[in-house]
Design a protein that fits this description.
Layout: E1 17-19, E2 24-28, E3 31-36, E4 41-45, H1 47-57, H2 62-73, H3 77-93, E5 97-99
Antiparallel strand pairs: 1-5, 2-3, 3-4
Helix pairs in contact: 1-2, 2-3
Amino acid sequence: MRETPMTENLFPRDAVFSIREDLVVEQVDDEFLVLDLRGNEYFGLNAVARHIWAAIDAGDSLAAIADSVCERFEVERERAATDVADFIANLLEQRLVSRVDA
């Protein structure tokens, strides 16, 4: 049996996040880039990460984001929830998003 990552339990299902307003987001060819001018870094997002980013930007809850990832990318609900929570935890660690419902 696969262990459940800690990040899956870090946030309640109704948690909502906000993208930092001073980031520059650009699409270059097939790559989606997030430029953090304050930290002088950039991050490339794949298709799943772009989907999650757009859902965060739309104000969707953690549960709604996981549901949409599950449907769009045809993955199991548990896997989608874990992957979304892990990605959002990484975004929080990089200070690219913040939790708005806390």
